[in-house]
Amino acid sequence: MALEGRTAVVTGAAQGIGRSISEILLKNGAKVALLDVAEATGTTLKKSLDGQYGPERTLFIPCDVQSQQQFKAALQKVVETFGHLDIFCNNAGIANENDWEKTVSINLMGVVRGSYLALEHMNKLSGGQGGVIINIASLAGLGPLPGAPIYTATKHGVVGFTRAMAETSKRSGYGVRFNTICPDFAKTDILNYLDSTATLGQFAHLADPTRKFVEQHGLLDVSQVSEAFLQLVFDETKDGASLMVLLKGSQYYTSNFLEWSDI
Fold it and tell me: How far apart (Å, rounded) are the C-alpha atoms in residues 198 and 241?
C-alpha cells in the first residue's frame, strides 16, 4: 500500500510508540489523525508537526478510547476532514494491575471498539475503500509477564482478536487486513508502571525483580516499532500476522495455532 494520499488514524498518538508511528506515516506521505486523551501534549505535537508537514496533513482530536461516543465522533470528523480512512492503529494502552478493570477497558475493549468503528468507514461492503488495521500488542501477548497478569491477558486478547478478525474479514469480503505487532520492552512511559508498587497492586512484591529484569534485558527504541508498523502497512501479503519486534532489530512472525483451512 503506497501512502501518498492515504489517511491514517493513530490512538495514543501524543507520545511514545504512537507518536513514532504517526511521524513515520507522515514522512511517507500519509495524512494522520492523532487521537489521545492527553490534550495538552497532543496539541503541542500537532503544532510541531504542522511546522514540518503543514497544517493540512494532521488533525488532533482529544479522544478517550473507553468512550463509544467520543471514538465514533472522532472517526466521523476524520472522514469529514480527509474524505476516507485507510490505515487504523489501535495503540492506546496502559499497565495498571491495581486498576485492572480500566486496564481491560483501554487495552482490550478499546481495541475492539476502535476496530469495529474503523470498519464502519473502511469496509468495502459498506462503501469503504478497504485498508489495514494494525493493533499494538506486546510480547506479553504471546507469553506471560510475571506480576502483570491483567496486562498479559489484555495483550493475549489483542492478538487473538486480531487473528480472528483477519479471518473474519477475508471470509466476509471486507477488504481490510488485520495485523498485530508484539514488541519487546520499549522506551515508553508504560515501563514506569510495570515496576511501580502503586500500579502493581497485590503484586507489588515483584516490582524489584521486574525492574532488574528490564534493566538486564534492554530496551527497544520506539523507532524500531514504527518501522515494523510501516512494514505491515506496505506488505499486503501480511494478514492475520503477529510480528514480534526484538532487540538488535530482530523480527519474527508467529503463525496461528489453528488455521481456517484445518477446519
Answer: 35
Please give the angle made by the CA atoms of 151, 21 and 143, to the nearest 5 degrees: 25
Report whether 253 contacts 246 (CB < 8 A).
no
Q: Could you give the residue numbers annotated as active site?
A: 151
Nearest to 45 by CA among 19, 10, 17, 70: 19
Supply 71's cell numbers. 471514538
Distances (CA, A) of 152 to 3, 16, 75, 94: 33, 20, 28, 11
pTM, two decimal places = 0.94
User: What's the rounded Cα separation, in Å, for the pair 129 and 238?
Assistant: 18
Residue 177 phi/psi, 5-degree rounding, is -85, 150
Report the distance separating Cα 180 and Cα 162, nearest Å: 7
pLDDT tens string, the chain, 263 residues long: the values are: 779 999 999 999 999 999 999 999 999 999 999 999 999 999 999 999 999 999 999 999 999 999 999 999 999 999 999 999 999 999 999 999 999 999 999 999 999 999 999 999 999 999 999 999 999 999 999 999 999 999 999 999 999 999 999 999 999 999 999 999 999 989 888 887 777 888 999 999 998 888 888 888 789 999 999 999 999 999 999 999 999 999 876 677 776 555 555 44
Long-range contacts of 29-32 (CB under 8 A, 24+ apart): 29/2, 29/3, 29/4, 29/5, 30/3, 30/4, 30/6, 30/86, 30/87, 31/6, 31/7, 31/56, 31/57, 31/58, 31/59, 31/82, 32/7, 32/8, 32/57, 32/58, 32/59
